[in-house]
Structures are given as C-alpha cells and as structure tokens.
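**User:**
If convenient, please work through this fold.
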Amino acid sequence: MYFRKKSIEDLIQEDTKVWACNNEDCKGWIRDNFSFEYVPTCHQCLSPMISSLKMLPIISNSNKNLKSLHKGRLIS
C-alpha cells in the first residue's frame, strides 16, 4: 500500500528573549515571559542567569505578568 508522505509543517520561529545560565557547564535556560523573577537563578545549578536571545517557536502565554504573582504564602 502506498502512503503519501505528509509535509511537515514549519513552525513559525522568532527571536525570543530568554534567560540563559551563566555557568559554562550548565545548559539551563528559560523564556523571559515564563519566568517568575525579574532576574532568575538557574533551577538546575543555582547560578545567576543572563539575558539573551534565542530563535524559538512562538508560544503564547495567557498570563502576561507572571513576575507580579506571589510565589507562595508568607508563614508567620
């Protein structure tokens, strides 16, 4: 039986602001619009992160202001 090869859709990519780990041995990074902090630390090695650009597929984030959300409750 003949199966026609389906064409793979090209995902639309754009330059996206990301936070990349400053540690050379770590490959951690996170999109800026998905980070909870204004200057995040790497979740893998706890090193500081630097801002950079990366060509990534477009992902929409419905919650635009994650940095203003509280990250838990204050225990007294």
The chain is about 0% helix and 30% strand. The two ends are 69 Å apart (CA to CA). The longest strand covers residues 13-21.
